């Protein structure tokens, strides 16, 4: 708990603050109070929650021959010399996907796929420069540029004709075989060759990733690119593998709760003067799947200039004995990444506020707290063995946004903002997982009482009215792992990362 007992100079009431002085408005006449009313407690259903679904960015295949140029700023190698190596059937294929993050970074996902059920793999990209023409239809026809290339294919792929059970997986990324900028797997059952035209005709049928990819590793994150080829060495020093998720969301001025005397015996309006979040979250992760079962799923998340704000405005007229509500102001999809058929990372940000108060008087109050988290905060979450999850430096730094008020007889207010950042992982063939960081941040409790003293308050004889404020601020940061709420609700694991009760 951060306890603040203050007679803050900024709280001195004058005509400049919200337009009226305390002496002009004192306690409400008792006639306005309905003593039988009791508390309003409950869930407020807000009228205009901002809901937004963001489209995912689809990562595009990066050929291994291009990767070097991306990462090192060098011209792509001509890889006509890749034959015959490019034709070899393998039991491990590395598939690299990426997308420009910003001017000098690449959002990247590396999939290392292992062959399953004795079906070896080959990526068409590795021998593509040796082909003249590729046609996918009833069969897959590959016309090679040279006898050397053709002979290499015959030599390496002959295995498929040796036995009926011999089959291999061809991963194709060619306009005739696959949707644009995607890789599509084909199951190859047999091969025919035409020596005169250097053409191989494969008996190949399109397969689904979920049927052939049952054992793989996937790493995702952001890779910084060198500004120039010369900066290569320097750039290599700050390769950091993360995907940034922009958390900047602002809600200004909506009334989040209101009730009028007719219904309750008092007027109460609560608005979010400035609520929201700022900053980014850098995320990287590793997933290992073996035989359709997730063996490892770890995520590293680190905030960058993260801030959560809560500045509320309260207008009261009457005696509100125990008003309480909570509301969701935002539920926003933040735009994740996906590899069609293989992997989706979908981040969302929810922003909830809660408020409870006992108020008496006729007053307008505004108060707020800003909380920031150090850029050194790191969460290393292990979603398979969540108790191994590590977190460091999540203790927030709290800064108060000064009180403003025109009058108050007595008020005891507790309010909190609760941004929740959730990451949903959808990995082929597996139920979706969700990792969520729930930040009850900031939570503030303030007891206010008006002071009036003809001799001056706060050591200033010119001021005749002031407000005494005792405020305490609490924080509660909780990490949870659950099955995706939409498909299979339930929390698997929950742990408080940081708690400082109010
Ligand atoms: C993907 O692989 C490339 C090349 O090996 C490497 O430079 C990069 O850091 C990897 N990216 C991720 C996110 O693991
Ligand atoms: C603030 O705390 C002091 C000391 O505990 C107490 O005397 C005072 O009444 C409190 N003020 C309010 C407004 O609750």
UniProtKB/TrEMBL annotation:
InterPro entries: DUF7029, DUF7223
Domain DUF7223: start-end pairs: 246-495
Assigned keywords, A-Z: Signal
One matching Pfam family: DUF7029
Signal peptide boundaries: 1-19
Ranges of residues in domain DUF7029: 117-217
This protein's name: Uncharacterized protein
Organism: Discina gigas
